[in-house]
Amino acid sequence: MTLNTVMQTIWGLLLQKYNQSDDVVFGAVVSGRPAEVPGIERMIGLFINTTPVRVSSSPEQSVTALLQQVQEAALVSESHSHYPLYEIQGMSALKQGLIDHILVFENYPIAEALGQAGGTAEAAFGIRDVEVYEQTNYDLTVVLFPGEALSINFCYNAKVYEGIFIRRMEGHIREIAQQMLADAQRPVASISLVTAEEKQQLLHGFNDTAAEYPREATIHGLFEEQAEKTPYAVAVMYGDQQLTYAELNARANQLAWTLRGQGVGPDHIVAILMHRSAEMIIGVLGILKAGGAYLPIDPALPAERIQYMLADSGSQWLIGDETLLAETAFDGVKLGLMTAMAETAATGTMHVGESSIIYGCNLGAISGPESL
With contact defined as beta carbons under 8 Å apart, do 116 and 128 qualify? Predict the structure, then answer.
């Protein structure tokens, strides 16, 4: 079992976990000098080639079995290592997308060899200040340097990959290697990428959500404050439609006045049956401003499920798109959202008085944070 095989297996497992797939492909750099080619050792030139490496596994397969599988596949493919990559890509349905990064195993470090070339007493000359710069056309190149300790160099396009992702990748490689060393007979499905640091962050760091906030504030109250501060800033965008804070506040108030007139108040549930849209946000805010609690219902749900939600919630009001309301059986009050706002504006029940559009004729609060 070669070190190259071990690292290709680790990399394959990493890609499988990242892509949630048990079958992955990546590129590997080979010498391109298979013994099957007559006279290959007497030929002068650069034969280095990139070939696809495919790593497939099953959840119950052991790590040892996967290592043997990768090793055997490498031996079989060695006789074809001189085959041009562009021809392989041409025969694949993925074409140029077959591989998007490469794994390079530097078993002959050029820089080190040049530096030592003139280091003997018999040498007629010396070579100093050796520097090697390599670049590929791939957005990610992973170079492995064997030695007393294995070194890994990540060369990546910073416009495609973030540095924090590359650092996490390094930790994930270590985690896979440690688990393989601890138990080579463990099933592939039991391999985990999560490091101890990430586990701490997931279980404790992300759940440390304690924060100071105004305990007596409400969502609609905070929204009204923001509408006062930035009335002409965009509050909602949906497709080509935009609403400023002032516009959204005014339209939500129109609906809220209508709902108040229909008897909606604290702890009253108002169902809203609408597709995702800017109008749905108007509906949610209007219900909260009226003092009620909203129950969102997805129109894509089966009719039986919608009927169950309406009955189970005990809601006496259903607002939404007029077309959807017409198709839904409901014993309570149905309010078409656009119709309700138009009627409020026409009848003047908003009690405009000295209020401006910025304040949007806000209603007096009758519900608090302890309400539904």
Answer: no
What is the total count of domains within the chain? Answer: 2
Tell which of 175, 205, 235 closes a domain.
205
The boundaries of the domain holding residue 69 are 3-205
Residue 358 has what pLDDT?
A: 45
Question: Sign of the CA dihedral 85, 87, 88, 90?
Answer: positive
Q: Tell which of 149, 180, 205 closes a domain.
A: 205
The reply to whether 165 and 52 lie within a common domain is yes
**362 HSE (CA, 13 A, CB side):** 18
Contact call for residues 335 and 317 (beta carbons, < 8 A): yes
SS3 358: coil
**pLDDT tens, position by position, 168-199:** 999 999 999 999 999 999 999 999 999 999 99
Secondary structure of residue 177 in the 3-state scheme: helix
Residue 275 domain-assigned (yes or no): yes
Nearest CA to 360 out of 249, 234, 221 is that of: 249
- The burial of 335, by beta-carbon neighbours within 10 Å (0-12 exposed, 13-18 middle, 19 or more buried), is given as buried
In a domain, 210, yes or no: no
Characterize 23-38 residue by residue with b for buried, 16 or more Cβ atoms within 10 angstroms of its Cβ, and e for exposed. Answer: ebbbbbbbebebeeee
Look at residue 305 and tell me whether its pLDDT is greater than 90. yes
Tell me what pLDDT residue 84 has. 86
Is 352 part of any domain?
A: no
Q: Which CATH number characterizes residue 303's domain?
A: 3.40.50.980
